[in-house]
Structure formats: structure tokens, C-alpha cells
Design goal:
about 240 residues, alpha/beta, Rossmann fold, six-stranded mixed β-sheet, four-stranded antiparallel β-sheet, 8 helices, 10 strands, globular, disordered C terminus
Amino acid sequence: MINIQTLSKIYKSEDVQTHALNEVSLNIKEGEFLAIMGPSGCGKSTFLNILGLLDSASAGSYQFEKVEMIGLSERKKSDVRKKNIGFIFQNFNLIDELTVYENIELPLIYNGVSSSERKKKVEEIMEKINIAHRAKHYPQQLSGGQQQRAAVARALVTKPKLILADEPTGNLDSNNGNEVMNLLAELHREGSTIVMVTHSSYDAGYASRIINMKDGEIFNEEHASQRKDVFAKADAKDFE
């Protein structure tokens, strides 16, 4: 589904160059749940932003379903994002002035979906994510867990091929965090492709594969089963 070859990202500031990514190569299969771990500043969020077409690479190749993404115009990137990618953020990124229903509906409006079809899709995903009873509430009236559920519903309402999650439990307590991770695990079982950035070893245990990054490079890759004993313990947040 995704093929990354020698991907690099360099930030330039006056005479200083910062290598956020250094020739990263990676394949992501359809239906895979991939967790990306590493210390702050290792490049994991930059990598996720490039996958989501929110940032551009300085060099290398990024193919999404055999189509090269590097060099696409901003308009074409926007089209790919709207049709194929759902985002889940640590800070939820819900619009305070809109109800839960309206927040979830927004991506469908951007995609030009008719009013009747939007109503059907929003109601379906709210039932699936168990947030329908909060449809008329505003974000500030919700708990953190409910806000993240609304954010997950918004990410899924367009039925994206790829779900990108950036620290999805970072602002949640352990109970709400577990609920969100169980939800992502269920989506994975149903065939969703998920790439998640996390500091949490416990959360990474839900993934089928984990890559560890340091200094803009992948230095280790392992399957979740290899670290079963670690994930069974309380979250130590190894990389914070």
C-alpha cells in the first residue's frame, strides 16, 4: 500500500541545517497496524506528517498505492488527503463552535457529499463509535475520552484507506486511553490500515509491528509478539 524509499527531510534556518529524517525506507502493507516509537525530536511526527501529506520531503520517494506523492501539487495532495486519509490527533482538534455531529460531518462537506448521504454516514459512524448520545453536545461539554471518540468518528466517516494517529492517548487517563486503543484495535481487526506515533510501550502493544526511530533514522523493527512481556506491564513510557 505504501512504499517509502530513502526519504529525507531537512529543515533550513539561516546557515543551520537540521536533518529531521535521514534516508528512511519502509513498506506498509494494507491492513497493517504500525506503531512508531522514539524519543522527542527523533523524526517520528515529521514522518507521520509526510505520510499524511501535511509536510513535504526534501528527497526520496513516497508511493501511495503505486502513485508517487513527492512533487504533487498542493491541490492534488489535498485531494488525496480528503479521499484517502483520516487523522486522529493528541489534542482532538475538534472545533469548539460545532456540535459533535457537525464536527463529524465536516469532512463529508469538504468532499461534496449530499446532505441526505451525510446524515446517513454520520449517524452510522456515531453508532459504531458509541458517541451518538452526545451528537448535540459541544466539545467542551465532553470528557477527554468522549472528545477523542468524536475525533475518531470524524477520521473514519469518509472510510479512509489510511488512518494516521499522532499520540491518540496522550491527553487521556489510562481508562479512556484503553478505550481508544481498544477501538483502534477493533478497526484494525476489521481491516483498517493504521499508522500510530506513540511514546507508550503499552499502546504500541496493540500494533502488529513496531519501528523505533532515533536521530531521523529507523534503528530497530519488531513485531508486537516479540515484546509481549513488556506490554503486559504498566506503561513505563520508555521514550519520554
